[in-house]
Amino acid sequence: MAVKQMQYVVIGASAAGMAAAEAIRKLDSQGSIIVLSEEQDMPYFRPMVPFIINGKKKFPEMMLIGQGPYQGANIGVRLDSRVKAVNTAEQKVSIKSGEELLYDKLLVATGSLPNIPSDIKGVEAEGVFVLRTIADARAIARRAETARHAVMLGGGLLNLKAAFALLERGLDVTLIVKSPNVLSRLMEPDDTVLIREALNKAGMKLMTGSNVTQILSDSTGVIGVLLESGREIACQMVCIGKGIRANVEFLDKSGILVDQGVVVDKFTRSNIQNVFAAGDVAVTFDPITGERIVTGLWTNAAEMGNCAGRNMAGQPSIYSGTFGILNATQVADEPFVSMGIVHTKGTDYETHIRATPKTYRKLVFTPDGTRLVGALFIGDISKAGLYRYIIRERMPVKDIKSDIVNHRLHYGYFLR
Amino acid sequence: MSQSKEIFVRLDRCVGCHTCKIACSVEHSKSKNLFEAISEQPTPKTRVYVEWVPPDRKVPILCRHCEDAPCMHACISGAISRTEEGIVITNSDKCIGCWTCVMVCPYGVIGRHLETRKAYRCDRCPDIQSPACVDACPTQALVYRSVAAFSGDVRQDVAREMVSGEGR
User: Fold this and answer.
1) From the list B79, B81, B103, which residue is nearest A328 (CB)?
2) Alpha helices, H only, A145-267
3) Which segments of A63-201 are extended strands (E)?
4) Terminal Cα-to-Cα distance of chain B (whole angstroms)
């Protein structure tokens, strides 16, 4: 008996979309897999785009297909194919060119878009950037050839990385942050001492608690920014890193339920049959707090995409959710990992802090002290994955609590 | 089909002598010689760890080259891949030192080389027949066998113990 060949259509060719395509191909060697990308470039590792700004890597070194787990053959990636609309009744998507594609299973993996606050005037000037795609990075690099001073708005991780990349190119960089500290989503002001030191040492100017109301420009593009305080700062380029929002506008008339992002169940299914969603565009949940969250992290997107791909290919797989906060990176010479609940000011969480001149560790337990719910490591992040495991599995920590607090924990404790 | 081998740990045999760590560091040095390795820059690193669980258990821990390796899927630069032999390897040239793999490894066996800002882990010693840690272990707490052969050994050992126990 001939089995009908499945048509899988994936919208979005970044972490979630490509991981899903990979997972589908593993389970279904016959089905047709088409991945639609609105970009002009073949899929790449998006977190690496800052390397285009500082020139440390060239595009071919960032390409995704053929690297790491992305080995699957026969995955059709179509570039410059932005999806205009999804017709869930007829199971088809229409793309920019006017072409329509039928699907048996559809994955929405369109990721997120940079959020540009409406209260900043003058954002359309030449020399104002967001950093999201490789094309953005190239544009930033071009402007940086002539610019002397860059102002970065927002103290999130990607903006920090972009700031460092510009510093490395020899520009002066001023980071302007509304909140009292950088990385406010990942740590509290008191936790950022080492990070601030690292920024200072690298030569970055940091202005916290400040807000830009207008970007000033003339025929040459950006010439400065105007602060709420009335002060002007001269600069030739501005990068806006003020958070992200799910890329869902094209789903407006599709009937697919959207609330901040595409709402999915634990099998990554949307409210419409045969439509799945994964990555930044999907609303998932935090296993610790139970809250519905939208994350913006490559690692989460790849994991969720992988799960969605298996579900689409007919192997039911439960997505276990992810922490609202989960991030590892290195800022200048300071590596850090932040995961789970790390904002404890004014809460009942039992918090243990160990600080040395070179390292900072914050461990957060439930108010009754029986479970670990969050961890922040700066300087020494060794074995961070073990702590993530304890948090995610909601393990009772009774016997190993002092080892957790004193950084003596190792896998041997779980081999009883 | 020949079955690929793995490194198994026999916890009851480990005496915590740390010989495996020295052998691992030397094998991953430029000179492959203990006395020169000590002064090499960057410092050669061990990829096997010997931990202690109170009161008296010693536990060698090393990369398990997981079937569904979280580090490989989490990597943001495509530096981690699986070889045909099933070994999960980190390509240093591609590693950007973001430590995402460290954040997701539930065994805590991915090391950070601070001088080179690269992640490293057990590579099962690709240049030699049997991994250096296994060869060096004086009590054979580490063994390099296929899953089938190792589980066969375990069954035989248990049977032998039961038989000898009956004789007492």
Assistant:
1) B103
2) 157-168, 193-202
3) 76-78, 83-87, 92-95, 100-102, 105-108, 112-114, 128-129, 149-153, 172-177
4) 43
Residue at A190: amino acid letter: D
Report the alpha-carbon distance of residue B105 to residue A378 in Å, rounded.
Answer: 18
The three-point CA angle A414-B3-B7 to 5° equals 35
What's the pTM? 0.91
Q: Which of A339, A410, A414 is the mutation pick for testing B, counting most B CBs within 10 A?
A: A410
Name the residue type at position B22.
I
Within 8 A of B106 by CB-CB distance, chain A residues are: 385-386, 388-389, 411
Using DSSP bridges, classify how beta strands A32-36 and A128-129 pair: parallel, antiparallel or unpaired: unpaired
Q: Of the candidates A69, A38, A35, A42, which has an alpha carbon nearest to the alpha carbon of residue A298?
A: A69
The confidence score (pLDDT) of residue A415 equals 82
Tell me the per-residue pLDDT of A327-375, one tens digit each, with 9 for 90 and over.
999 888 889 999 999 999 999 999 999 999 999 999 999 999 999 999 9
Q: What is the ipTM of this complex?
A: 0.90
Type of residue numbered B12: D
Q: How far away is chain B from the Cα of A227, in angstroms, using its nearest Cα?
A: 33
Nearest CA in chain A to B100: A328
Nearest to A330 by CA among A171, A206, A157, A90: A157
